[in-house]
Amino acid sequence: MAATVLMSAFVNALLARESAASNDLINADIRAVRMQLLLEPDIEAAEEGDEYETLNSGEASWEASIEPTDVVDLFRVQFSIRFSEPPEGQAAEYSETLYLLRPTWSEGDERSDLLQDKREALEESRGDYQF
């Protein structure tokens, strides 16, 4: 009976180790593909996405949906990846929401409008106070 319990515990430990290794592989590939988005200076190219050959999950196709927020130069990004050959037991698709501060993605007129709105809100909040 003791041998059965020990063997079961050993098998469970091996399965947990294998699962953790698989998670490490897919997470490393996700980080590498995410870096491709972060390195993209052009908003249109970032939204279009690209393909990237990963070390462990085959080819990754990524794309992003990018929306400006009410904060100057801050963007809400829906980022999705599809892996051609994910590690066994891992999903082939991954998505996440990121908030990125990217001045190169801002359009001049939108940025000016947001700055003007913030300036007016600040002046209104000051009221009659003089500094």
Structure description:
This protein is of the alpha+beta class. It has one domain. The protein has helices at 2-38, 43-48, 108-126; strands at 50-53, 59-68, 74-83, 93-101. It is elongated, with a radius of gyration of 23 Å.
SSE map:
Blueprint (H helix, E strand, L loop, with lengths): L1 H37 L4 H6 L1 E4 L5 E10 L5 E10 L9 E9 L6 H19 L5
Antiparallel strand pairs: 1-2, 2-3, 3-4
Sum this structure up briefly.
The protein is of the alpha+beta class and 131 residues long.
Shape: elongated
What's the SSE pattern? Answer: HHEEEEH
Mean pLDDT: 85
Alpha carbon gyration radius? 23 Å
Helix content: 40-55%
- What is the domain tally? 1
Based on DSSP secondary structure assignment, what is the total number of beta strands?
A: 4
Provide the spatial order of strands within the biggest beta sheet: 1-2-3-4
**How many helices?**
3
Beta-strand residue fraction: 25-35%
Distance between the termini: 81 Å
The structural class is alpha+beta
Q: Which spans of ≥5 residues are poorly predicted at pLDDT below 50?
A: none
Q: Describe the biggest sheet?
A: 4 strands, antiparallel
Keywords:
131 residues, 4 strands, 47% helix, 3 helices, alpha+beta
